[in-house]
Write a structure and sequence with these properties.
heterodimer; A: 76 residues; mainly alpha; 2 helices; B: five-stranded mixed β-sheet
Chain lengths: 76, 163
């Protein structure tokens, strides 16, 4: 009896965890209209971003520019 | 016996995440309004080859797919092809603006709530479902690729040839 109760508790916990996973769903492919709006861009002006990236790339090219992630050693 | 409610709950939670419109399966039915309020539903189209296209105003490839679907409509409607464009925009004005720039010669219906794309388990925009004369999904096309046009058209011709 005790064993079955603990399995029951486990299954209930599993169900609760599975349901909790449903609370924050990423938007479905057909729900991305708002994300596609121009005001949702990270940058204000695509041309300015391009120019800034170009300059950064030319200055920091030896270290990989903006494309290489640093390892956190402080040497790159 | 005390296990039963918990088991049922677990089963229910996992059962909720199944079902899709895969090739060979019956196409999920829909009945959606056009801009004029006329209802277009899948059931009366049984006996025809149906090309269901999910699109949105913010989807760039959709813009390119419309002229092609207009061509298909012009070429194969008389042979029994029916094209239905299902718009999934939240705001009707966005869809109307799109249609002003990119007119459609086939019926366009609106599903702002997204029930139909959910039933078809749409994986990306645009997505198209080719449905044969007996109402089963024959092919699923994700995205719109110019190089796939001929293959889809051949597929449509083959389905139209079946009676």
């Amino acid at each position: 009896m005790r064993c079955s109760r603990s399995i029951e508790a486990l299954l209930t916990a599993l169900a609760v965890i599975a349901l909790a996973g449903c609370t924050l769903q990423p938007p479905k492919p057909w729900e991305k209209g708002d994300l596609a709006r121009a005001s949702m861009r990270f940058d204000a002006d695509p041309l300015e971003t391009k120019l800034t990236q170009h300059i950064y790339q030319s200055k920091e090219g030896a270290g990989g520019g903006g494309t290489v992630g640093g390892g956190g050693c402080g040497c790159n | 016996m005390r296990l039963r409610p918990a088991l049922v709950l677990v089963g229910l939670v996992y059962a909720l995440s199944a079902h899709a419109a895969a090739p060979g399966a019956a196409a999920p039915p829909f009945a959606l309004p056009t801009a004029g309020g006329e209802i277009v539903s899948l059931a009366p189209l049984r006996g025809r080859v149906v090309y269901v296209d999910f699109w949105a105003s913010w989807c760039a490839p959709c813009r390119r797919s419309f002229p092609w679907m207009n061509e298909l409509q012009a070429r194969y409607a008389k042979d029994g092809l029916a094209i239905v464009g299902i718009n999934v925009d939240k705001r009707r004005e966005d869809a109307e603006r799109f249609l002003r720039d990119t007119p459609a010669s086939f019926p366009v219906v609106y599903d702002a709530k997204g029930g139909t794309p959910a039933a078809y388990d749409v994986k990306g925009m645009p997505s198209s479902y080719l449905i044969d004369r007996s109402g089963n999904v024959a092919a699923v096309e994700e995205g719109f690729h110019d190089e796939r046009r001929d293959e889809i058209e051949a597929r449509i011709r083959a389905l139209l040839a079946q009676h």
